[in-house]
């Protein structure tokens, strides 16, 4: 591996731009290759980074040219990019969710795991110091009830409003809240959901995703909980997860940015001080240089389990 971490990008849309912003702040990193089906977008990214525009995703995945690849294509358009990178010995970062078909994702996960390649999945909220504080506090403290919500507006792309391409708001976006619940409280045992289309039936009848959802669940610990979500909430947006115990209360709001912990001995209020995107990229680069996956907070295997919960919720409503 070269002294400089040479990085390729497949997909340079909105979320990729945030990764590029962060990587520019990390020493000894260089973006050398970019590809996007939108050639104008690819050219802009190349001009901003000094990278070369490649003719295909496969051309980016050249082990002689790059030390790391960021795969930021939509979940329906990813093909076998992660597997190709892993088999070629190229460490990779892939955005969440890791897919929309569990059978496909399980096959990929097995191959990726067997290659032993260092990699990460973009569940960036795990890297907030508030989330890490909550994780330490909740260790050995099972909640009896978890309540969560995420409300906001829709992704601008047309593909996002098709269930067979995005998986819907829950699979694509509220996946962060599902993942945070898993990360802090353990594995889900059962999930049930109801979804509605009251607004989309009027405003966007060609879409196939839901505009609101109500999910109930139980966990292996015995904890029960609920999660509500909507992508048609223009006048109020936010996210919130509350953990209720017989002798504690933990509250993460603002997508994890704000933390409150209350028990018989303390009342703690904290605000996240880290740039989680920076921490996510820095951790991955250091892991690649050390050759160890240990410091990565979300692997493909872990991300698969989060996807499993959200797709099971979708399936339960059919």
UniProtKB/TrEMBL annotation:
Stretches assigned to the GFO/IDH/MocA-like oxidoreductase domain: 153-245
Record domain Gfo/Idh/MocA-like oxidoreductase N-terminal: where: 5-123
Gene3D superfamilies according to UniProt: Dihydrodipicolinate Reductase, domain 2 (3.30.360.10), NAD(P)-binding Rossmann-like Domain (3.40.50.720)
Name the record gives this protein: Dehydrogenase
Lineage of source species: Bacteria, Bacillati, Bacillota, Bacilli, Bacillales
């Amino acid at each position: 591996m070269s002294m400089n971490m040479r990085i390729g990008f497949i997909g340079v849309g909105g979320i990729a731009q945030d990764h590029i912003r962060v990587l520019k702040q990390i020493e000894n990193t260089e973006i050398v290759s970019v590809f996007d089906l939108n050639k104008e977008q690819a050219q802009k990214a190349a001009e901003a980074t000094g990278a070369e525009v490649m003719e295909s995703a496969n051309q980016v995945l050249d082990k002689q040219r790059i030390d790391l690849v960021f795969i930021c294509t939509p979940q329906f358009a990813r093909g076998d990019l992660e597997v190709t990178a892993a088999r070629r010995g190229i460490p990779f970062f892939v955005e969440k969710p890791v897919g929309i078909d569990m059978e496909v994702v399980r096959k990929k996960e097995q191959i990726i795991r067997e290659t032993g390649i260092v990699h990460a999945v973009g569940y960036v909220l795990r890297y907030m110091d508030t989330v890490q504080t909550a994780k330490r506090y909740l260790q050995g403290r099972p909640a009896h009830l978890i309540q969560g919500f995420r409300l906001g507006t829709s992704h601008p792309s047309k593909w996002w409003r098709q269930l067979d391409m995005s998986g819907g708001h829950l699979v694509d976006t509220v996946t962060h809240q599902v993942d945070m619940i898993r990360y802090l409280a353990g594995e889900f045992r059962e999930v049930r959901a109801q979804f509605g289309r009251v607004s989309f039936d009027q405003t966007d009848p060609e879409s196939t995703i839901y505009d609101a959802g109500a999910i109930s669940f139980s966990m292996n610990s015995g904890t029960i909980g609920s999660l509500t979500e909507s992508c048609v909430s223009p006048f109020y947006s936010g996210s919130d997860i509350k953990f209720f115990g017989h002798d504690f209360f933990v509250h993460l709001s603002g997508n994890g940015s704000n933390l409150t912990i209350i028990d018989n001995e303390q009342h703690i209020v904290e605000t996240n001080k880290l740039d989680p995107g920076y921490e996510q990229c820095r951790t991955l680069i250091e892991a690649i240089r050390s050759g160890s996956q240990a410091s990565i907070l979300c692997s493909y295997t872990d991300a698969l389990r989060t996807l499993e919960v959200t797709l099971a919720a979708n399936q339960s409503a059919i």
